[in-house]
UniProtKB/TrEMBL annotation:
The keyword Oxidoreductase applies. It comes from Rhodococcus koreensis. Residues 44-187 form the Flavin reductase like domain. SUPFAM superfamilies: FMN-binding split barrel (SSF50475). The lineage of its organism: Bacteria, Bacillati, Actinomycetota, Actinomycetes, Mycobacteriales. This is NADH-FMN oxidoreductase RutF, flavin reductase (DIM6/NTAB) family.
Length: 216
C-alpha cells in the first residue's frame, strides 16, 4: 500500500504538470496576434524549406531567381505550383515562355542560392547548365530538377501563382539538401533511425517518394 506522503507528492507533481501545460497554452494563446506583413514575414520564416533556383529562357536569354514558394500539387498527373512576385525580373520571362525549371539545390550550392537572389546582368556567370527538351537551362549538381510547362495561372496578392505540369524530372539520392530557416541557410542531419526509415521507404517502391521520382 503506497505511503500517504508519496501519494501526495505524486498528486502535487500531477497538479504542477497541469499548471505548466495550462500556462504554456495561455502564453501561446497570447502570442496569437492579428497578422500584418511584418509578423507574417517573421512567422513564415520559421517554416523550414528547401531552396530552389527557378530557371527559364526568354528571347534567347537565360533568366533565373532563387525561390522557396514551390510546392507539389498533384501526383497523377504530376503537377506543381510556383509563386512569383510580379515585380521580379524573371516573372515576365516565365509568363512569356510558359515554361520553367525548378532546380532543387544541394547543400554545396549555397553560393548559387545567393548568386540568383541578387540583381545581376548575368546571374548564370560560372554556372554549369545543360539545355532541356523544352530549351530551358537546367543547373547541374542539384538535388533534383523538374522541367515544367505552365497550364494555368492566377493572382494572389503581389504574386502570380503558376500551375504547371511536370514534363521531366531527375533526382540524385547521393546528394543532400540545402535548407532555409529563419533567414539562414542550413543542412539536414538525419539520425540513424531516420536513415533506416528512409531506406525502407525508398526500397518499398510505393507511395509518394518512389512514384514521384520514377518520372526520371
Amino acid at each position: 500500500m503506497p505511503q500517504l506522503g508519496s501519494a501526495l507528492h505524486s498528486m502535487a507533481d500531477e497538479r504542477l504538470t497541469v499548471e505548466i501545460v495550462d500556462d504554456d497554452k495561455q502564453r501561446e494563446k497570447n502570442e496569437m496576434k492579428t497578422a500584418d506583413s511584418t509578423l507574417f514575414r517573421r512567422t513564415i520564416s520559421r517554416f523550414a524549406s528547401g531552396v530552389t533556383v527557378i530557371t527559364t529562357s526568354h528571347g534567347g536569354t537565360n533568366q533565373g531567381m532563387t525561390a522557396s514558394a514551390v510546392t507539389a500539387l498533384s501526383l497523377n498527373p504530376p503537377m506543381l505550383v510556383l509563386c512569383v512576385n510580379r515585380e521580379a525580373p524573371t516573372h515576365e520571362a516565365i509568363s512569356t515562355a510558359d515554361s520553367f525549371v525548378v532546380n532543387v539545390l544541394s547543400k554545396s550550392q549555397e553560393p548559387l542560392a545567393r548568386q540568383f537572389s541578387r540583381p545581376s546582368d548575368d546571374k548564370f556567370a560560372g554556372v554549369e547548365t545543360y539545355t532541356s527538351a523544352l530549351g530551358l537551362p537546367v543547373i547541374t549538381g542539384c538535388l533534383a530538377n523538374f522541367e515544367c510547362s505552365v497550364t494555368a495561372r492566377t493572382t494572389g496578392g503581389t504574386h502570380t501563382i503558376f500551375i504547371a505540369d511536370v514534363r521531366a524530372a531527375a533526382a540524385y539520392d547521393e546528394r543532400k539538401p540545402l535548407l532555409y530557416y529563419a533567414g539562414r541557410f542550413g543542412r539536414l542531419v538525419l539520425a540513424e533511425d531516420d536513415l533506416r526509415d528512409l531506406n525502407r521507404l525508398e526500397k518499398a517502391e510505393s507511395g509518394w517518394t518512389s512514384d514521384w521520382f520514377r518520372m526520371a
